[in-house]
């Protein structure tokens, strides 16, 4: 296998052009407290504001945007006799502005924090800030000018980009205000992450991840229908598989297309699920035929991680299998369930292609039996994971989605786990999406809707313009990265409401 230039050329030909829209701040703002949380409220006109040493101004762009920002300055007073020295900070949520970037000592790079310090030697000046930012709020702080002059902010704008075609998005009009709102926020989240590829989050990591792609694609089929973008992303992964044919967990576009050297058990397998979903949404069998060997290869490679009984071997290496950002979560049972789920997707694909499915069916049967034989705890009547027989939500959800239990038995399992507050929780909208999916798979439509209302509604109630990478209602400061300042607050693995509401609750 290895790099496939034909696939990459095909992907390149399908990648979208970005649409650019110039947006200006809607008002100046100031931070305030609302229901015990930091928020922002309007604070007058921003244009023409005079700024002396130590002054700052918060600009509110009215919604979440992704793009390049330009500021224009003039001066008043004497001829500027010293450089103007500024700090500019960007925030997706107002609360980010209360955090001290210097205090972050977590394990991912501080470089993700959206801030700049710049000098302007000559005024008037037009300051085109260097990076692409993801934000609603911009705080400008004058670190110094001289005592003889002040700055005047004359213009500010963002050349905002997305590849989403807003005119392609039919409204979701359910007659239920909360659901309409959840759909709108989810749609905005997806839109902002739709750049040249489906980015996971435009603040961080700004790249194509396979696990995220699966969910973005599902929401996309119900909303923007940029199906060629999904196709391009699938070809990118297939075209950058490594020598043994394994697809990476994520990939970069710049300076040239390159897969990351991060491989995750579940993300590689999800290639099959994402391809199955693409097939169901588009019927594009030419692409399916071309990409099928890549999907099949992921299931073959996964075999090496199973013992002779068909049970996936547990590992304690962080990130061997992602599942969720709960750092205490043991992944073994989820990995087993995800394998079952992806084998089922692979079987759908191979059948649609008219090819024999025996090998996959046998593998599915053996691994399903192993799940029941080795991971089922008779006493608690729950699935357990790892040597310590950990009980988690994720394990039950994935066993349901993988079909290890079905029908009324599966519905009862999901009820049982809900009665066990002592078990490992789900901490991301990504895992919650899978939970909603599992509830729907067992016919619990009302419960699934209730989760959408409570969980995503919780973010909406906190003023979310876009849904977040992480949300633990019990712990607003949760972050697997050692600090919330690097959390992403527009993360498309959280656009579940747009998918579920439009597909199942019309
Ligand atoms: C986060 C990324 C992405 C996810 C990986 C596993 O760092 O932002 O969303 O897929 O983790």
Outline the fold blueprint.
Blueprint (H helix, E strand, L loop, with lengths): L4 H10 L4 E5 L3 E8 L2 E6 L6 E3 L4 E22 L6 E8 L23 E6 L4 E4 L4 E12 L4 E14 L14 H17 L14 E2 H13 L4 H13 L10 E3 L5 E2 L5 H18 L2 H18 L29 H21 L5 H17 L1 E2 L4 E2 L9 H9 L5 H12 L10 H13 L3 H17 L34 H9 L2
Antiparallel strand pairs: 1-10, 2-3, 2-5, 4-10, 5-8, 5-9, 5-10, 6-7, 6-9, 11-12, 12-13, 14-15
Helix pairs in contact: 1-4, 2-12, 2-13, 3-4, 3-5, 3-13, 4-5, 5-6, 5-7, 6-7, 7-8, 7-9, 9-10, 9-11, 11-12
This protein binds alpha-L-rhamnopyranose.
Alpha-L-rhamnopyranose binds next to helix 3.
Description:
The chain folds into two domains: 20-162, Galactose-binding domain-like (Jelly Rolls), CATH 2.60.120.260; 166-477 and 487-504, Glycosyltransferase, CATH 1.50.10. Helix content is 37%, strand content 20%. It has helices spanning 5-14, 177-193, 210-222, 227-239, 265-282, 285-302, 332-352, 358-374, 393-401, 407-418, 429-441, 445-461, 496-504; strands at 19-23, 27-34, 37-42, 49-51, 56-77, 84-91, 115-120, 125-128, 133-144, 149-162, 208-209, 250-252, 258-259, 376-377, 382-383. Strands 1, 2, 3, 4, 5, 6, 7, 8, 9 and 10 form a ten-stranded antiparallel sheet that branches. Strands 11-12-13 form a three-stranded antiparallel sheet. Strands 14-15 form a two-stranded antiparallel sheet. The model has no long low-confidence stretch (mean pLDDT 97). The chain has 506 residues and is of the alpha+beta class. It contains 13 helices and 15 strands. It binds alpha-L-rhamnopyranose.
């Amino acid at each position: 296998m290895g790099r496939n230039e034909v696939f990459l050329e095909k992907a390149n030909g399908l990648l979208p052009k970005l649409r650019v829209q110039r947006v200006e701040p809607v008002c100046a703002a100031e931070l305030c407290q609302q229901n015990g949380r930091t928020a922002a409220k309007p604070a007058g006109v921003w244009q023409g504001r005079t700024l002396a040493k130590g002054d700052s101004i918060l600009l509110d762009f009215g919604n979440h945007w992704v793009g390049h920002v330009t500021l224009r300055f003039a001066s008043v007073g004497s001829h500027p006799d010293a450089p103007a020295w500024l700090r500019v900070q960007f925030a997706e949520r107002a609360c980010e502005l209360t955090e001290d970037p210097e205090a972050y000592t977590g394990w991912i790079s501080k470089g993700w924090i959206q801030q700049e310090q710049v000098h302007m030697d000559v005024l008037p000046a037009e300051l085109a800030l260097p990076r692409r930012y993801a934000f609603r709020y911009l705080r400008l702080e004058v670190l110094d000018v001289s005592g003889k002059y002040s700055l005047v902010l004359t213009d500010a704008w963002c050349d905002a980009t997305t590849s989403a075609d807003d005119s392609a998005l039919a409204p979701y009009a359910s007659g239920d205000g909360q659901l309409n709102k959840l759909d709108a926020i989810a749609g905005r989240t997806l839109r902002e992450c739709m750049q040249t590829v489906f980015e996971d989050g435009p603040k961080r990591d700004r790249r194509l991840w396979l696990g995220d792609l699966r969910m973005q694609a599902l929401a996309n089929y119900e909303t923007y229908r940029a199906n060629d973008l999904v196709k391009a992303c699938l070809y990118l992964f297939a075209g950058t598989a490594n020598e043994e044919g394994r697809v990476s967990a994520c990939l970069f576009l710049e300076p040239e297309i390159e897969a990351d050297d991060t491989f995750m058990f579940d993300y590689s397998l999800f290639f099959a699920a994402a391809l199955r979903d693409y097939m169901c949404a588009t019927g594009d069998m030419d692409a399916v035929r071309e990409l099928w060997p890549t999907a099949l290869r992921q299931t073959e490679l996964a075999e090496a991680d199973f013992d002779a009984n068909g049970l996936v071997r547990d590992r304690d290496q962080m990130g061997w299998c992602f599942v969720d950002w709960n750092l205490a979560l043991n992944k073994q049972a989820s990995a087993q369930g995800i394998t079952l789920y992806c084998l089922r997707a692979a079987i759908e694909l191979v059948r649609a292609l008219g090819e024999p499915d025996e090998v996959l069916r046998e593998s599915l049967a053996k691994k399903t039996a192993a799940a029941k034989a080795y991971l089922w705890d008779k006493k608690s009547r729950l699935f357990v994971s790892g040597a310590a027989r950990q009980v988690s939500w994720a394990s039950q959800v994935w066993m349901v989605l993988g079909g290890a239990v079905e029908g009324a038995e599966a519905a009862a399992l999901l009820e049982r786990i809900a009665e066990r507050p002592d078990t490992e929780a789900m901490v991301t909208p990504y895992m919650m999406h899978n939970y909603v999916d599992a509830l729907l798979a067992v016919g619990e439509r009302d419960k699934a809707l209730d989760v959408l209302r409570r969980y995503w509604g919780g973010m909406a109630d906190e003023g979310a313009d876009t849904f977040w990478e992480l949300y633990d209602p019990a712990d607003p400061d949760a972050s697997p990265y050692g600090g919330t300042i690097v959390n992403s607050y527009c993360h498309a693995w959280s656009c579940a409401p747009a998918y579920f509401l439009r597909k199942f609750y019309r």
